[in-house]
Design goal:
- The protein is an alpha/beta fold.
- The protein is built from 20 helices and 15 strands.
- Strands 2-1-4-5-6-7 form a 6-stranded antiparallel β-sheet, covered by helices on one side.
- α10 packs antiparallel against α11 and α16 runs parallel beside α17.
Amino acid sequence: MLVHLSIRNYLLVESVELDFAPGLTVLTGETGAGKSILVDALALALGDRAEGGVVRSGTPRAEIAAEFAIEGVPTLAAWLDEAGFASDGGTLILRRVIEAGGRSRAFINGSAAPLSQLKDAAEYLLDIHGQHAHHALLRPQAQREVLDAYAGAQALSAAVSAAWHAWQAARQRRQDAETHSQARQIEREGLHLAVEELRALGDDLARWDEIQAQHARLAHVTTLIEGGQALIQGLDEGEGALSSRLGEMCARLDAMQAVDGSLGEVAALLNSASANLGEAVHALRRYADHLNLDPERLAELDRVLGDMHRLARKHRVQPDALAGLLEGYQARLVELTASDDLDALQAAEDAAFAQYQTEAKQLGAQRRKAAAALSKQVTAAMHELALAGGHLDIVLQPVSEPRAHGLEDVSFLAASHPGLPPGPLGKVASGGELSRISLAIQTALSGVAGVPTLIFDEVDVGIGGSVAEAVGRRLAKLGETRQVLVITHLPQVAARGTQHLRVAKQANGRFVSSNIAVLDADARVEEIARMLGGLKITATTRQHAAEMLAG
């Protein structure tokens, strides 16, 4: 539920801090005072797009923060956890800062967040029904979405749409295979030849670096053998070999160390050098033992490298990329083989269509059940809203061919008076009647929706008298199970509120501000009286207002 709203430097509002209560909260004020500013500001905190023009003139930025109590919304708490936003004691704070230049920033519980995440959080928190929301009901898609929402079938509807697209994709693959089979056959034959050429290199294909090293060693083996022998001679075998001379030096230094112990470190270093020299000689001998002239192997490596360079040039890649190229060609061959298997493609298409039909039939069954219940509920509400004898019929018409939205079209047909045949909403209902039908549908949806807060922005435009009283009663009843905020110009609706806010314009020098205040009991009487009597408020008007509030 919405607990607190803070607005600073937004349009005509300089600074407002509002606490909200459960039940029905009404917001009133004279025309042009800025009643919708509160809803518009709240929408920004919930992720709506903003422009720099909303910043109050002469200030650098606007800031809006909305605080919600979310103890009763475990799904939102889980979402916050998963998204990495800590929830402090069951409280959620959504904040929006809009710079005068148009740049904006968003925050969830103090952490920066993209607008998309504010919108995701908003889906768990509240619904806003604008004063022109009833116009959307004229669209068939909106009527279908209303029915699916009432049926709790949004997830199944999305699954049906996904299954339809999967079926279409499978059908397209089968059709493409039939249309382009000759081109695919040509491509497959070319790939077969390329794969066979590459496979002929066997394991060598993936050993480019190793083969290059072997070839370089064999191509220069004579130089390597001669160099190895010369090193061994100089270090250990020839006359005046370094190992012999170093041994003599070590012996002399050992004798000197016996006289002067300070030479111990030098002796250790020389002995270490002698040992390292011996290790080097052994390593050179092992290396020399493995060096052999092998003209046959060298010729074989020449051939392999020549083949690899030739294929690399042919396929316009580096030689070390040939192994990856072979894998890609093989994968494409598998893909082409599968795509040319018309029986398999037809089977996949049939399976996708069967899946679509299964889910679409389940959706249709849920829609038919929900259509009867929603028609009955909205018809009853219409009678309460001074449309006695009127009724709403929700018709499900089978489609000529399967569609992404299912196997039936949804149409809302209404009769606003008894004896009239039902027809499309836009043709049989006046603006006021359509508004009331819309309110009946919206409150019906609100009864099954999980969001704890509902906002109605002047949905009662164009009605009055007993109809206005019926609208007020209906909103008050809705407020028994939900937090409801209503922007209204009707005293009959305003009198039903458990909390009353008033918006007023105030001039301060060159600037005009909108102020929002919570009214106490006496102030409520004055405000209801103003709504009843206009500029001239009499004792009779005040008495009437008090009676309305008492009733």
